[in-house]
Known about the structure:
Helix content: 10-25%
CATH architecture: Sandwich
Radius of gyration: 19 Å
Strand order of the largest sheet: 4-8-11-20-13
Oligomer: single chain
Largest sheet: 5 strands, antiparallel
Keywords: Dioxygenase, Iron, Metal-binding, Oxidoreductase
Number of domains: 1
Organism: Clonostachys solani
GO cellular component, one term: endoplasmic reticulum
Strand content: 25-35%
Amino acid sequence: MVAQNLEPRKQRSRPGPIPDEFLASPPPKPLKINHIDFASSAVPENAECLALTIDSILSKAECEQLISLAEASVTNTKEDEMPWKPATITIGQGIQATVRDYRHCDRIEWDQQSIVDRIWDRCTQAPGLRELLAEVVPEGSFDGQKWEFRRLNQHMRFLRYEPGQFFKPMLYLSDSTTERGGRESLRGGVTSFLSQDRERRVDVDPRAGSVLIFQQRGLLHEGTVVERGVKYAMRVDMVYEWVEGGEEANKRVKV
């Protein structure tokens, strides 16, 4: 992995006014959780890991509007400069690096708590999702010790993949049948969960308006090369708070 460009971490965009009606209505279709069944897949060793998809969180028109809002939020110093910049990774002490053999795509970043809150409200229309993600109890924890869900992080990362671009080691805004701006429909760009030797995989195809939710720890994954068309996605992290539990649990921790 070779760092090709170094720069201080900085916020590249400033979101403008968001229409009050944007994402304020119910989702376009009834929502359903689709669990990824690792136990019956090519990577059964991931059977204890959580990964799921929910389709139709956003309509295709809402996906288009969200992309346009992201692009309009970037203030360029040159009129002919594109709003999308090469995605970077953090290498420590606030320094960002462009590493094309690891993450090869373009990105827009902005902070907008109201939008991620609206997206989360849409997601929770899927029966059982709020309860499923409400808390995480780590193995070996004492009584009452757990991580409790608080919110989605306000930091949004819009990602744009053109042919030949990829992401290697939750929201898709385009799919394999959608065309945008006269571009060819998307081919490739699936999210893959891999075995440790990278010989086996489970693929999740992009679908406009769908969300992919999965745990980072313990799940080796990648975004495969886009072969045709343009893939748009938006990434946001879930924020949990560590809860120690009651008085008895605290006593046991001290012992």
